[in-house]
Ferrous iron transport protein A
Amino acid sequence: MTVDKLKKGQNAIIEKINADKSLKDRLLSFGIMQDENIELKTHSLAKNTFEVQVGGTLVALREDEAKKIEVKIINNF
């Protein structure tokens, strides 16, 4: 599963980031890395941007970026 498939409020663990080095480095600068907890806070109506929280940081991701972050859900409702 990828971040773009999460429901609002769902928590997950990042399993893998399928991106080139420059995007991985940018995501890493926001704390988005393997084995970190990520929560989907909200998304745009068209689901082309996603607001996620990693640690104490809120990050806005584009749809193509969210689709590159594989996660495993830790709470399901």
Q: What stands out?
A: The chain has one domain: 3-73. The beta strands are 11-17, 37-43, 49-54, 57-62, 69-73. Residues 3-73 form a domain with the SH3 type barrels. fold (CATH 2.30.30.90).
